[in-house]
Design a protein that fits this description.
Polysaccharide_Lyase_1, single chain, globular, alpha/beta, 467 residues
Length: 467
């Protein structure tokens, strides 16, 4: 489980452009001309809202140049998306401010020596890499992250990468980053769970993960006002099970931002074939929802409910596409289903729908329309909703250049207007049976950040050289 000692080395290529750079060069307009849509300014007035940008302790993403030998700045770029992992309110400065240990996963067992669970349970700042790929069966016992300072780098696994079944990952610690992991709990578990959830951590990032067959929500946060700065970016969130094992009955829900959660960024994600919560932003929350895609839903984005505290949101450049289950007369952003108790203030701009006649907002009331964004991360750049649709579908989820059959199937559904709300993983072929693969890693003594960036490029960019 210690630093890998394999003989394989990886080439260095610092010249490859990220998708953000390519889009900028091709005129897509990541620093475009839409007021309120570029994110290049702090708000439409040019002033920074107090307490909404940067870290309260005086650190921000610019501080990721390493002070202890680890350069985390690569996390601000993605080879497959214009949204970087650290473009939201959560950052990776903790990596650069510490000397993280590298632990290698060598077993697909759900626990024990060499397992993912063992690596996650280690103490101290740590980076988890993989010499094995395939399916990790948790047998109903989800992984609990309760020690701070964790970076799980799923991009380092050999193809087909890491897929977790019969369990999820629940975060209850600060400074956590998960990338390029697939989580598919299904219904063969003791009780309802999310695929990926933040229960009590601050500064938590879920980036480029695939989450399907959740039995509560799929990806959610419930950290409250005391634990702010949460980012969900570039995740494929799909097929949350409906008439399954949840005690409340039908429960196909995508993403829930629970009461009073603060500074939550939801950007570059795809929700598909799930009834509702794309996402739901409950009472007292402050959130940015930008450049996401929602497909085949009954209810899309809902605000408020739960507590009477004011809900604030910036909802910019999202794309909602009707599917077989979608009522095209209903607004995609509203309060109808939330029993809203407190005031709601939202800036809603540059969102698009398909068909275009499907309204973005309705007449049910309850939302005070802001003329400028009430909050916005400094580094988040956006494109128009229609452009987001294309970029999200090409680069969303775990290992977009090395997708498995279930992720490919979901994306085909979105493109072709197909798919359905399901009640069990058995409705779509059951749990995956992926070949176990291995490779040797040669983790460098220096330049671990650039090494991890190379692995990320290899699984995100189809044109990248394999490692």
């Amino acid at each position: 489980m210690d630093r890998a000692s394999g003989s394989r080395s990886q080439p260095t290529d610092r010249r490859r452009c990220s998708r953000r750079t390519l889009l900028t060069l091709s005129g897509v307009g990541l620093t475009g001309t839409l007021a309120g849509c570029t994110g290049s300014e702090s708000d439409d007035s040019g002033e920074t809202p107090a307490g909404e940008n940067g870290d309260e302790n005086g650190t921000d993403e610019s501080s990721t140049e390493d002070s202890a030998g680890f350069d985390a700045s690569f996390l601000g770029e993605s080879a497959s998306s214009h949204v970087g992992a650290t473009d939201g309110f959560a950052d990776a400065s903790w990596l650069s401010e510490t000397e993280p240990e590298v632990y290698t996963v060598t077993s697909l067992e759900g626990s024990g020596e060499g397992s993912l669970r063992e690596a996650i349970d280690r103490r101290g700042p740590r980076i988890v890499v993989f010499e094995v790929g395939g399916v990790v069966d948790l047998e109903g016992a989800s992984i609990e992250v309760d020690r701070p300072g964790l970076y799980v780098a799923g991009q380092t696994a050999p193809s087909p990468g890491i897929t977790i079944i019969r369990g999820g990952i629940r975060v209850d610690a600060d400074n956590v980053l998960l990338q390029h992991i697939r989580v598919r709990p299904g219904d063969e578990i003791p009780s309802e769970i999310d695929c990926l959830s933040n229960a009590g951590g601050s500064n938590v990032i879920f980036d480029h993960c695939s989450a399907s067959w959740g039995t509560d929500e799929s990806v959610s946060t419930n950290s409250g006002r005391e634990k702010p700065d949460i980012t969900f970016s570039n995740n494929l969130i799909a097929e949350c099970l409906n008439d399954s094992i949840h005690p409340k009955g039908a429960h196909s829900y995508g993403t829930l931002v629970m009461d009073r959660s603060k500074r939550v960024t939801i950007a570059g994600n795809l929700w598909a074939n799930t009834v509702a919560r794309h996402p739901r932003l409950k009472g007292g929350t402050s959130s940015v929802v930008a450049n996401n895609v929602g497909y085949n839903f009954e209810r899309a984005l809902n605000l408020g409910g739960g507590v009477d505290d004011e809900t604030t949101a910036s909802i910019v450049g999202n794309y909602y596409r009707a599917g077989p289950r979608t009522p095209t007369d209903d607004a995609v952003v509203g309060t109808t289903y939330t029993d809203a108790k407190g005031p709601i203030t939202a800036y809603i701009a540059y969102n698009e729908t398909d068909p275009s006649s499907m309204p973005v907002t309705g007449n049910e009331g309850g939302i005070t329309m802001a003329s400028q964004r009430p909050l916005w991360p400094d580094d988040l750049k956006t494109v128009r909703g229609g452009q987001a649709y294309d970029t999200v579908l090409s680069g969303v989820g775990a290992r977009p250049a090395d997708r498995t059959a279930h992720d490919e199937r979901i994306l085909e559904h979105v493109r072709e207007g197909m798919g359905a709300i399901i009640d069990s993983q058995e409705d779509v072929g059951g749990y995956p049976d992926l070949e176990e693969t291995t490779h040797a890693l040669d983790v460098p003594d220096e330049g671990v950040g650039e090494w991890l960036a190379q692995w990320a490029r290899a699984v995100e960019d189809p044109a990248a050289s394999p490692l």
